[in-house]
Amino acid sequence: MTLNIQVVVDCKKPHDLADWWAQTLEWSVEPQDEAFIRSMIEQGYATEDQSIIHNGKLVWAEGCAIIPAGDTTPTTGRRILFQTDPNEKTVKNRVHWDVRLDGRDKDVVRKELEARGAKHLWTASQGPHEWHTMADPEGNEFCIS
Question: Residue 88: which pLDDT band, with cuts at 50, 70 and 90?
Fold first, then answer.
């Protein structure tokens, strides 16, 4: 049996952060089923306040996921879920991800990300390899190299 993993990010605004990361990684925001959400509300399994309108669509308020662009197989496990946590981030992440730039200039990418709300935290190196540690718009650390 093969196991898959989903990365989950706690954040204040899951839909906004999912949009930001989908654009950054050139992934897609996973579609949510408006008819299913309405059905759950109508049947009493959910309430209106558990949904919101985001980008003109009815979605669950508490979470939003992104998947690789063109990924039509939901069982691949390649998914990042952003879920609501009202608490402010207070310490360095114990887990972060590295965005591999596949030959793109890391300084150019750094400037592009900063223009979209990311923050450069520091630059580090090990031997000939150098990377930038960044923070997304909600302060979650990630590296680009």
Answer: confident
